[in-house]
Amino acid sequence: MIFKLHVRGAMLVAAAITGLVALAVPARADQCDDIAKQLAGGIDGLKVNFKAANIIYLTHPAAKELSLGCSAQGQTYSNELYAKGDRKPTPKFFDLVASAAAITFTLPKDDTTTGATRCLKRMGLLRGDKVTMRYKRLNMECTRTKTDAAITITRPKDE
Q1: Is 53 helix (H, G, I), strand (E, B) or coil?
Q2: What is the reported pTM?
Q3: Three-state DSSP state, 47
Q4: I want to staple 69 with a disulfide (CB 3.0 to 4.6 A). Which of 53, 80, 88, 104 is the partner?
Q5: Distance in angstroms (rounded) separating the CA atoms of residues 65 and 81
């Protein structure tokens, strides 16, 4: 009888310790999900649609397409922001891209506004429909078609 009490007590203590350890270790969400929640909370009208593989699709009235990509093994970038709008981007589109880039890459909004505006406005007769540039340790690639203009902003993993 005494032996059973000790075993039962030891099992109870072990279960209590296991429960405390489980509570002490915080559940870590994916970094990409955290950034998507920050974007949804920080930008009016932005909604998180769904996640497929390492890409979270977002919606906003100022953009035709909007997505946040997070790095997987073997990729050279840490995060990627992709936005597509009209061929002649509106000020609302510039503001959306700048705000999203500022939150995603933790930079001042003024810097991301300058970089995105420069990239999107450089496309034209002299430079063509694809412009690649680097601004404030961000790689920006702007492309346009007959109906759309798109910008992809990434930061290399080593920076």
Answers
A1: coil
A2: 0.74
A3: strand
A4: 80
A5: 11
- 129: which residues sit within 8 A by CB, 6+ positions away? 123, 143, 144, 145
Extract the tokens encoding 6. 């000790």
Query: For residue range 40-58, what is the model confidence (pLDDT) as tens digits?
Result: 888 888 888 888 878 899 9
Task: Tell me the sheet residues that pair with 56.
Answer: 51, 68
Q: Do residues 58 and 46 touch, judged by C-beta distance below 8 A?
A: yes
3-state secondary structure of 66: strand
Residue 57: how many other CB atoms lie within 10 Å: 16
The CA-to-CA distance between both ends of the chain, in Å, stands at 65
In order of 48, 125, 138, the CA distances from 63 in angstroms are 13, 24, 21
The span from the CA of 100 to the CA of 30, in Å, is: 18
CA pair distance 117, 103, nearest whole angstrom: 17
How many Cα atoms sit within 13 Å of 110 on the Cβ side?
0
CA distance 156 to 139: 8
Confidence of residue 24 (pLDDT cuts 50, 70, 90): very low
